[in-house]
């Protein structure tokens, strides 16, 4: 993991070169503008929360980042690879946990991860080592042969995180990944991702939950397809003149979303 992140960083000039970069990204569905010129950057070892109420454009942004479709305008680059010119290079640097569960419930934990490893072109021996490492990282070392169907919701999310890590991405995308989890499981997942951040991974964590955003190095507030604020949680609270991030978020979005 560290190696992948380091390689990506040293390819640029100094530590400030972002591993994930969106510049003036626009996307419309027919006449509806979902993203109206969004710019966001995430550096190595940085945890950025993308905080937005329903309809802000978070899912659209993640769909662009995962190559599901192209932006109408603007630039997206991962580890210096433009997602339009070099989608394979860009997507190789990304690990994703989607909002919707995407595991095959009838397969074992290990089989799900093996499938992902093959998709990323990992050889058998390398895949074996990476899968063991990723499962140990999320505390599921002893569950490799269990059918996913037998795991709790919290453990299934951990398997999804392990799967996202198998190919050692420099950038981790978490799309409302804690939806449906109880508070303890939510905290565990957040803590694990913070540890990955500390190992150098660049994390973009989409959420509508203010308490999750409070743990971030920077919070990007997205509303109706525009970035309303981008900075450390304290700075956002200070700029809004409120007592809490929740109040600042409410004020910025006109009460459109709070949790
Ligand atoms: N396939 C689509 N066709 C038409 N409009 C869409 C489509 N997907 C999203 N939109 C619209 O684009 C805007 C942004 O939606 P998006 O789902 O990206 O927001 P979001 O922040 O992920 O919201 P949520 O938290 O509710 O998932 C909304 O106005 C939404 O109605």
From TrEMBL:
Keyword Transport among record annotations: yes
Keywords for the protein's UniProt record, in alphabetical order: ATP-binding, Cell membrane, Membrane, Nodulation, Nucleotide-binding, Transport
SMART domains, alphabetized: AAA
Residue ranges annotated for the ABC transporter domain, each copy included: 20-249
SUPFAM superfamilies: P-loop containing nucleoside triphosphate hydrolases
Domain of life where this protein originates: Bacteria
Keyword Cell cycle: no
Pfam families associated with the record: ABC_tran
Single Gene Ontology MF annotation: ATP binding
Family: Belongs to the ABC transporter superfamily.
Record protein name field: ATP-binding cassette domain-containing protein
Upper taxonomic lineage: Bacteria, Pseudomonadati, Pseudomonadota, Betaproteobacteria, Rhodocyclales
């Amino acid at each position: 993991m560290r190696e992948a992140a380091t390689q990506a960083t040293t390819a640029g000039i100094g530590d400030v070169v972002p591993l994930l970069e969106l510049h003036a990204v626009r996307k419309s569905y027919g006449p509806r503008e979902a993203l109206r010129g969004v710019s966001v950057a995430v550096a190595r070892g940085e945890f950025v929360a993308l905080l937005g109420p329903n309809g802000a454009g978070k899912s659209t942004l993640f769909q662009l980042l995962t190559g599901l479709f192209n932006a109408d305008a603007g630039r997206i680059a991962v580890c210096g690879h433009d997602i339009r010119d070099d989608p394979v290079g860009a997507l190789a640097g990304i690990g994703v946990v989607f909002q919707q569960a995407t595991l095959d419930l009838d397969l074992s934990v290990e089989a799900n991860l093996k499938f992902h490893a093959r998709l990323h072109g990992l050889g058998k021996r390398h895949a074996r080592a990476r899968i063991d490492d990723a499962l140990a990282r999320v505390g599921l070392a002893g569950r490799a042969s269990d059918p996913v169907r037998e795991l709790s919701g919290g453990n299934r999310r951990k398997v999804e995180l392990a799967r996202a890590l198998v190919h050692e991405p420099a950038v981790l995308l978490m799309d409302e990944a804690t939806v449906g989890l109880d508070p303890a499981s939510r905290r565990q997942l957040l803590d694990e991702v913070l540890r990955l951040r500390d190992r150098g991974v660049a994390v973009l964590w989409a959420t509508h939950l203010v308490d999750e955003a409070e743990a971030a190095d920077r919070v990007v507030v997205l509303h109706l397809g525009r970035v309303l604020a981008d900075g450390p949680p304290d700075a956002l609270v200070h700029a809004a003149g409120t007592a809490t991030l929740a109040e600042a978020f409410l004020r910025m979005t006109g009460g459109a979303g709070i949790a």
